[in-house]
Amino acid sequence: MSRRLSGIFGRLTALTLASTMAVAPAAQACTNILLTAADGTPVYGRTMEYAFNIQSELAVIPRNYGYVGTGPDNTTTFKWKSRYALAGVINLGKPVVSDGMNEKGLAGGALYFPGFASYTAPKDADPSSSLAPWEFLTWALTNFATVAEVKAAAAKISIIDVPTPGINFTLPLHFAFHDATGASIVIEPIDGKLKIHDNPLGVLTNSPTFDWHINNVSNYVNITPVDAPSLKIAGQTIAPFGQGSGLLGIPGDPTPPSRFIRALGYVASAKQLPDGPQTVRLAEHILNNFDIPIGFIRTDPKGGQLEYTQWSSVADLRAKRYYIKSYEDQVLRSVDLMSFDLDAKTLQIAPLKANPTPTAIAFPKQ
């Protein structure tokens, strides 16, 4: 696909996205985690929830791929070319990622941030350093190798309040970044400025703000993966029911504050495994606990929009392997980024195909 055709196709698919979003809410239940293997390999994982099929595809974006930032009223801001190749998820054909990992092992995801995202007014921003919300993640992953580099560059960037083309709605997003050293940050647009938080916990969900979630952890300092001992009262021994009594009280609902606590519980208590490949499987098992089936969350008593987990991704940040499984195909599949021609002239795109029929188990012949 030529860059000119890519730009035209991008504008058309943006209009498709806009018309679809006009009748359906965006993702409000994303969960983002980081694990570290015993050999130091960081492994990143996240879920993506939406209330309509966002037609996700896997894409490998090469080096030197051209982008143009979006300004208000169909204007443009600045141009850039991808310094680093990346593998990630694009939606509705537009060549910007909602999640991905680049060739240096920098990974990131955009998560919904309703009620708290507050972008810079376009009139107050310098077009030479302004991006639309849906472009920020792609700009960072195509330009930088580490969390530290993103942190330094983001201080000079404005994310501007630009409605998605065709509707009067601006995507409210915040962003998680992790790199091959194990460093993590969260970037949130607050009061027109980008607030950058170091994230030693490696966990992020949705609203409220990241600092609120950190303060909320103090409400759960009594939670432990170790079973509670029996209690003696008036000579009677009161034993807990079954296993898991140390986790009694950990929230199990799908709200962002509860998912943050539960995700932190899994990350903090999971057994550290020797290497990246084994930790990828561990991340998959943890993300399974945040999977939302269709119908579990409803926007009104008669059904409304039915948000569900469209896909879950995992990335080995040292091996540069990106993994994904979808609602329609629960087999984790991989993309080895370093096996591609990273100087190719076009995107490589693969759809997430449905696989409704489970594969039969092959028994050995007698």
TrEMBL record:
Protein name: Choloylglycine hydrolase family protein
Keywords attached to this entry: Hydrolase, Signal
Gene3D superfamilies from the UniProt entry: Penicillin V Acylase, Chain A
GO molecular function, one term: hydrolase activity
Recorded family membership: Belongs to the peptidase C59 family.
PROSITE patterns documented for this protein: PROKAR_LIPOPROTEIN
Domain called Choloylglycine hydrolase/NAAA C-terminal: residue spans: 30-347
UniProt-listed Pfam families: CBAH
InterPro entries: CBAH/NAAA_C, Ntn_hydrolases_N, Peptidase_C59
Signal peptide location: 1-29
SUPFAM superfamilies: N-terminal nucleophile aminohydrolases (Ntn hydrolases)
